[in-house]
Amino acid sequence: MAFAIMRAKKLNGMGSVAAALQHCYRDRDTPNADAERTADNGHRAAQSTNEAMGKLRELLPEKRRKDAVLAVEYVMTASPEWWTKATSEQQADFFDQAHKWLADKYGADRIITATVHRDETSPHLSAFVVPLTQDGRLSAKEFIGNRSKMTADQTSFAKAVEHLGLERGIERSRATHTSIKQHYAAIERAAAGHVTISPETVKPQVVKKGIFTRQEETPEAVAERLTAAVTKAYEPTTAKAAESAQNARRNRELQETMVGQRERIKALQEPFKGLSREQFKELVIAAAGMRRENEAAKAAKLQRQKEQRQQRRERGGGGLSR
């Protein structure tokens, strides 16, 4: 079972955005990236950190809160096993769909850059978008401001790539996960190492040599050196064991989540027990009507607020001209 994965991070301050972009464009050291494959990365929109920062400045409104979210950084990828089986056409389609999803949500002009990283263990799209509303306000809250919106985004994104054989993770799962950097590091250490202890390895090494003096390792130093070599060689095996334990815990948490969801569904169904099909149908129709009324009222309120802002701007402009 392969999953669609999407994570978002709010960036406050020009320094935070610049630092994240430097990582994106490999302007700074990136330990979990293979420098020999960095040339395979592809940049959509801006081609450099400076160009992306320039686009950001052009989009940002002059008046904004000091603590405003200037950009949202997205990482969009899939389960590692999916990449090993997906064709080049499927991989290209995944990145196209991810880019389109962001454009549909924010507007294509709000995407300051979208980079396909292929120099890490699992390919992924790193994208930076400006949460600018249609009326020119910075408002990350309107785009990803609460849990329900983020949950809906996860569902929507998974829907956009489900034709590629990807699924959404369990909704409202209590399962935890390691960071992307930690996950990549664990995968890169997956192959277990080994150490060979030969007679030459056991012999004390010369640590200091002069014209008339010669200092060799003490027995304690030899033991410490060999212990360090063995520990380093079997770090991947230890990491793999830890990963297996984490997966077992995650499975237990997922099962608990499913049980909890069944209980919630049962509680939601309780008020409708004993109703006929026609009665239930009438309730659904009535609920749909009330929802439309609420949406119409909300739209009317937003329109009134927009007209009031426009009137205030016109009055303010008139005052300046006098």
Might you state the CATH topology name of the largest domain?
BirA Bifunctional Protein, domain 2
Proportion in β-strands = 5-15%
Tally of helical runs: 11
Strand order in the largest sheet: 1-3-5-4-2
Estimated structural class: alpha+beta
Residues in helix, %: 40-55%
Number of domains: 3
How would you describe the overall organization of this protein?
The protein is α+β, with helices and mostly antiparallel strands and 322 residues long. It has 3 domains: 166 residues, BirA Bifunctional Protein, domain 2; 65 residues, no CATH class; 48 residues. The strands form 2 sheets. A 5-stranded antiparallel β-sheet has the order 1-3-5-4-2, sandwiched between helices. The longest helix is centred in the C-terminal third of the chain and has 45 residues. About 5% of the residues have low confidence.
SSE layout and pairing:
Layout: E1 4-12, H1 14-24, E2 42-45, H2 49-59, E3 69-78, H3 80-85, H4 88-106, E4 111-117, E5 124-129, H5 140-144, H6 147-161, H7 180-188, H8 199-202, E6 206-209, E7 214-216, H9 219-233, H10 235-269, H11 277-321
Antiparallel strand pairs: 1-3, 2-4, 3-5, 4-5, 6-7
Helix pairs in contact: 4-6
